[in-house]
Each structure stands twice: as C-alpha cells, then as structure tokens.
Amino acid sequence: MWLAIKRRVHRYRLRDPAFRFLFEQPPPDEAVAIDCETTGLDQRQDDIVTVAAVHIRGARILAGGRFEAMVKPDARMKKEAIKVHRLREGDVAGGRTMEQVLPELLHFIGSRPLVGYYLKFDVAMINKHARRLIGIELPNRRIEVSGLYYERKYGDAPPGVAVDLTFAAILADLGLPILDQHDAFSDALMTAMMYVALADLKARNIRIPRQRATPFTNFGGG
How far is it, in rounded angstroms, from Cα 136 to Cα 139? Predict the structure, then answer.
C-alpha cells in the first residue's frame, strides 16, 4: 500500500512529462541490472564516476544492448575509491555530467525493475541527480540479489549459521565467472548473471548447500 501511495505522489511531482514512461507497465519478464562506481561511499558528499546497466529478459542477458557512461563528478575523488576502481580524476575529467547522462540512462531503464548488489547505495547516488532533473526519485521496483541469494542459501538455516553475502561468495556458489570487479559494466553483468541463476534455482525449488554452522557472520561488500 505504501509503495503504491509513493508512486502516486511521484507521478504527481514529476516535473518533466517527457519522463512519464517511468510509470508505465514494464515489459513482461524484463529487468535491468545496474551498477555505479563513485568518488567514495558518502551518499551526500560523493558522486558517480561511471554508471552501467544491462537488460535482462527472462533467462537471457542482453549484453549487446548495454548502457555505459563515464561521468565527470561534482565531488573530488577519494584515495580509497581510486584503489577500488582504479580511476583517477584525470581519467574522468573528459566525462559528461550526470545532467547529460541521466536522461539517456532513464530511457534505457524505462519502467523495468532494477536489479543490483547492495542496490540501495547505487539508487541513492542516481536519485540525487534525478530529484534535481525531474523532481522525483526513481519509481522503479528494486530487486536485491544478495537478498535472493540469502533466501536460497540461508532462508531455512537454524540460528548460528555463518552468513557470507560477499560478491565473491555469491559468484562461487552459483558457479559464475569473476570478471573485472569494480568496473561498472562488469559488475552490472555479473549481477545480471546472479539474478538469472538465482531465479532459475527458485523456479526449480533448489536451495544452495550450506557448510556446518560457525559463529562468524560476514556482511562485507563485493
């Protein structure tokens, strides 16, 4: 009920009618995997440096129609972020602004559900610009792959079972390849592969095997 009310409010507050397509019925059985690399992890102070997305249709990943953009950020690059994605300020100085990139990204996403790994952060970074450009946050439904993975592996686990939701652990359990991690498109593509594999396991009612319980719990990022 709350989400339906929020969508109605967003539809009313939409500043540019050219983006009404965000509220249309999404294409059947389609989603979009998305990932951002940023200047840091502070949602208020940091900004996007690269953003990528890929369409998913059923059990197919449509990598040929991918979206990828380098962005000139409003914030300074932090040393910790450079170590992660290996992009320096000089590397992104020739990028476009998010005001230029965002309309293209929104048209690529459309009204499809968003798929991501710790998606809340990526969407929050995009929403900073969406609010400024069109007056609203992204109204798209969100699908968190770490939550899908948790349900398949730990959903029926007894207390005390070690939980590992790292990017590498999910890839390993699903038998998926590790691509160039912390590259926006590679991360979006791997996330799409996770989503397709987990959806298949759920459709066939197959759970991911667990090792014996240990007292350690790790919620580290990928």
Answer: 8
Could you give phi then psi for residue 117, rounded to 5 degrees?
A: -105, 115
Query: In terms of C-beta density within 10 A (0-12 exposed, 13-18 middle, 19 or more buried), how is residue 53 classed?
Result: buried
CA gap 149, 170 in Å, rounded: 7
* pLDDT tens by residue, 128-147: 999 999 999 999 999 999 99
**Spacing of C-alpha 85 from chain mean position:** 16
Superfamily for the 2-203 domain:
Ribonuclease H-like superfamily/Ribonuclease H (3.30.420.10)
Domain ranges of the chain: 2-203
Q: What one-character-per-residue DSSP string does the chain give? A: -HHHHHHHHHHHH-S-GGGGGGGSPPPTTEEEEEEEEES-S-TTT--EEEEEEEEEETTEEEEEEEEEEEB--SSPPPHHHHHHH---HHHHTTSBPHHHHHHHHHHHHTTPPEEESSHHHHHHHHHHHHHHHHSS-----EEEHHHHHHHHHHTTPPTT---B--HHHHHHHHT----STT-HHHHHHHHHHHHHHHHHHHHTT-PPP-PPP-S--B----
pTM attached to this predicted model: 0.88
